[in-house]
Every structure is written in C-alpha cells, then in structure tokens.
UniProtKB/TrEMBL annotation:
BP GO terms, sorted: riboflavin biosynthetic process
Chain segments annotated as coiled-coil in the UniProt record: none
Gene Ontology MF annotations: 5-amino-6-(5-phosphoribosylamino)uracil reductase activity
Protein name per UniProt: Dihydrofolate reductase
Length: 206
C-alpha cells in the first residue's frame, strides 16, 4: 500500500532553504551546505545519469532506498520553476504533479518523466499521484510550503530528514507553522554518519 512521504535535508537550526530563492538562485544558494553529504555519494549522481561522487557508503544506501520506493512526486510551483531550467531530462523517471495556478499542458519528457500541472489543490494532486504510483509511495518533494500543506492536512505517513551540521541563521524553515496537535510522532530510526544525521519518523493522525 502506498505511503505519503517526504525526504528532505535541513540545517541544524531547521532551515530547508535560504533567503531570496529564484531560478537564478535555487534554494537561496544553500544547497551545497545542506546537501553536501548527498553530493559526495555515487548514488546521487547515478540518479542524475552521470558519473560523480567520491563515496558509496550507508548514506548512499538511503538515497537508493528512497528512489526505489517512490512511484510519483508532488511539488510546488516555486520548486519546479527553480529546477525547470537546470534539471536533466527524465530526472524523476515518474509522474510529477506540480501545484500551480498556471494552466499548462503536461510536459512529457523523453523517458518516463511527465510533469502534470494541477490547479485544484493538494487533494486532487494526491489522488492523481496515488494512481500513478502503482502501489509505490508518493513523495512530497518540496518546497517547504508544499510539505507544510500536506502535514497540516494530515496526509503524511512517514518522513526522513537529513540534518547537516551547519547553522544557516535565516531562511525558510521546514516545520514553520505546523499544527503541533495533528499527529503522534514515532521515531523509527536514528542513523549518524560523519556527514549528516538521518532521522526517520512515522506519523499517526490523532
């Protein structure tokens, strides 16, 4: 049975992205600080279809596990706009549902990635994504606001966060404005490495 998940990197002080995000400044310029552990892994570059990475460690195992379990993605318009100009063709290898007010025909890429543009809310996007996932999980890709919407709607089953040992001081917080009474949270795993701390939680709606 499909689960609704997210898998995100954050700074030690809780920031998902920096300030002044734009297509010219993706993630507010802090991706290298939050995701440096991921960029070191061969698994990440394999996903992009290019050679790269210096390591193939336990951190890479978690990257592959998340890739393998995901059957469809949901993301917000801002994240899509930041990535559209730089992402390689067929990055996601699955259907991606973009939350937006813009009316646009699906963007069918070579391979198995199709971007669908959803104008009628998160429930509609989720319904479509679950059908596309064919029993695999639906990953709420981001940005932070999109993840927050799904959390506050009581729709998340599980999440995996990767805490980088860095303070950003300001930016966009992943858990800003969360309804603290929506779920009972249970720790599933705590896995340290020399680059990052991995935390996996399950969520039970109250």
């Amino acid at each position: 049975m499909s689960k609704i998940i997210f898998d995100s990197g954050i700074s030690l002080d809780g920031f998902f992205a920096g300030n002044n995000r734009s297509p010219q400044n993706p993630m507010g310029g802090v991706s290298g600080q939050i995701h440096s552990w991921m960029f070191r892994q061969k698994a990440f570059w394999e996903y992009l279809g290019v050679e790269g990475g210096k390591e193939d460690s336990l951190d890479g195992k978690f990257i592959r596990e998340t890739i393998d379990r995901t059957g469809a993605f949901i993301m917000g318009k801002r994240m899509f706009e930041e990535g559209e100009v730089v992402w390689p063709n067929d990055l996601y290898k699955a259907d991606v549902y973009v939350l937006t007010h813009e009316k646009r025909e699906p963007w069918v890429q070579e391979g198995s990635t199709t971007f669908h543009f959803i104008n009628d809310g998160i429930e509609s996007a989720l319904e479509k994504a679950l059908k596309s996932a064919n029993g695999k999980d639906v990953r709420i890709q981001g940005g932070a606001n999109t993840i927050q919407q799904f959390l506050n709607a009581g729709l998340i089953d599980e999440f995996f966060i990767h805490i980088a040992p860095v303070f950003l001081g300001s930016g966009i917080r992943l858990f800003e404005g969360i309804d603290k009474d929506k779920y009972e949270l249970k720790i599933m795993e705590v896995i340290p490495s020399d680059q990052v701390t991995h935390l996996k939680y399950s969520l039970i709606k109250k």
